[in-house]
Amino acid sequence: MTAHIFTHVSFESEGIIADILNELHIAYSHVPLYAGADTPKSSQIDFAIFMGGPMSVLEEREFPFLAKEKELIRTLIQQKKPVLGICLGAQLIANALGAEIIKNPDKEIGWFPISGSSTSKSTFSFPNKTTVFHWHGETFGIPEGALRIAQSKACTNQGFQVGSAIGLQFHIETTEASMQSILSHCSSELSEKSPWIQSEERIKELARTSIPQANALMGKLIRYMLGK
Fold this sequence. Notes:
- The protein is of the alpha/beta class.
- The protein has one domain (2-226): Class I glutamine amidotransferase (GATase) domain (Rossmann fold, 3-Layer(aba) Sandwich).
- Helices cover 30% and strands 26% of the residues.
- The chain contains five helices and nine strands; from the N terminus they run E-H-E-E-H-E-H-E-E-E-E-E-H-H.
- It has helices at residues 17-23, 65-78, 88-96, 176-186, 200-226, and strands spanning 2-7, 27-32, 47-50, 83-86, 101-116, 130-140, 147-151, 159-162, 165-168.
- It has a nine-stranded mixed beta sheet with strand order 2-1-3-4-9-8-7-5-6, with helices on both faces.
- The longest helix has 27 residues, at 200-226.
- The radius of gyration is 16 Å and the shape is globular.
């Protein structure tokens, strides 16, 4: 099995996902689209992971690779291959399946709780309450045929599952290093007015206890998607 990790900017990595794939003895390859990497064919992919980025999935003219990703996502889901989208990646899956992408009522940045919202035995089950890392201004609609699997006070649609695909608006792959990388490049957003934006100091404080539980949940999710 070979996993492909699609990245959209240099400063948003896969975080703990690399360690999890190594533990499962799964080979993986990076696809740095921001650096001009070619989009691989679906036949080359066993597991696709689409990471975050500051652009909108609607900006296909500025970022032509977005349209190619959406086409690939549709093909992979038709082929019933596991597809995981995180933040921008989740919005890519949703939009590829015809769902609307809109501005969230409030920008959400920092460590805030989400809750599982699906009672179906056919979906991944998130805890009733768990603290995860957020950094987003837009949100997705739930695609036709999908089930919402997570929500929060700040953002109704935090996660969905449809066929072989799962989309998460939040980050549970975050490590101290990946969090610091985003802070270094995007800290100007922390000065914006929103009840759901934490200070850099508060983000780092909460990370100490929140990262381990978030990473453990990421491990459970990947194992679930791969039947491990």
